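Q: Hi! First time doing this. I have a protein sequence and I read that you can turn it into a structure. Is that right? Here it is:
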Amino acid sequence: MRYFRLSDDVHVSGRWYLDDPVDPRGGEVDRWQFESGLPVAMDGHLRVPLYRAGRALDFSVTAVGGAPVVHARVAPIFAELAATDVQLVPVDVEGQSDEFFILNVTRVVKCIDDQASAEVHYWKPEDGRPEKTGNYRAVHGLRIDPSKVGDAKVFRPWGWLVVLLVSEELKKALERVGATGAKFKEV
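A: Yes, that's right. Below is the predicted 3D structure, encoded as structure tokens:
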């Protein structure tokens, strides 16, 4: 089985850029909760403002928190192929009448292959962040050990939650429908 990093293709011409989600009153939302690998509970319908207007994409991420946002036409792919790995949180995207969802990935897998990755760094006690000691500080040239993934189709690697990984099956399903904005790199 092959796995891929799913990221926002910033090279799409004329594309939009999304800002971080806000609550129904326009107040700040803890954007990092969408990278925690845990289900979230929302009070009211979230709104995603545009950072820069442009062509809407089927897959993109918000500005700082990097919350993945998917169009309703690709959301069923995640719901069907990875039902136990994701939570689809409805959001209103500024200027759009179509439905969109924050793709909250709720599966975390301890699978980073330190030896096969180009470079890994860990937080150390002398870094002055005791709550992070032993966790990854940086991972370059990410590679994973597929034998540790199990049945996950969409997941974040333990210790490096800023990355979103998908199975080859899910990648191919998104490519079949021509999902715009999705970029894949094998890990």
